[in-house]
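DM from R.C. (forwarded with permission)

"hey, sorry to bug you on a friday — could you get me a structure for this? deadline for the figure draft is monday and I only need the backbone to look sensible"
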Amino acid sequence: MLKVATYNIHKGFSPLNRRVVLHELRERLHELNADIVFLQEVQGEHAHHAQQHADYPDMPQHEFLADPFWLHHAYGMNSVYEAGHHGNAILSRFPIVLTHNTDVSAHRFEQRGLLHCEIDVEGRRVHCLCTHFGLFARGRRTQLQALIDYAQTAVPADAPLLIAGDFNDWRGKLSAGLDTALGVQDVFCLQHGKPARSFPSALPLLKLDRIYMRGFDLVQCQVRGGRNMSDHAALLAQLRKR
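My reply, with the result:
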């Protein structure tokens, strides 16, 4: 079995940025007990947060969240500004043998990336793609094609593949294209016939986040909300190796 989760952590702040919630987030991630975690809006560096918040960690957020549960982790820096940067991250219980971050920004107003990790899961290479698509439909279509082009080039067609993240796809326009091009399936569509509602976390209404799989069988999946943490709920899926 392989447990996979995806979570937009809102840069470690509660909804409306009222307080730092990284310690609670770490506990929540531990409760999920996932083998591989896909994270979005991860703060890699910020020059002022530690000065403004006494409980802010003195290390990048993905390292703080990984310790001591996930020994292996990777970070993809996407959005860069004067005070620091943020992006996507993958945490893993299994060795990460390859990491590559690709810029899939559709325009200069939103910096977006695609983090690719090749993970050795008990002797089997699993390709993991973590992404966070933009807010505008035209940009998301551009980013979808960039993801497809990259995966078709970098991932063998018969390799196990996991794609997860915040797709901002509340209209459900992207899954068919991924299925056709890459042969992946949305785990929640398989189990429930529709994508998961994941936003806002207190009362999920919009279907923004996804876990897609190829080369696995779905055992179960669920939405794991959490008030006063991120503005998104986490998605969790348990998969069986074929």
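R.C.: lifesaver. The chain is about 20% helix and 40% strand.
me: no worries. The longest strand covers residues 36-46.
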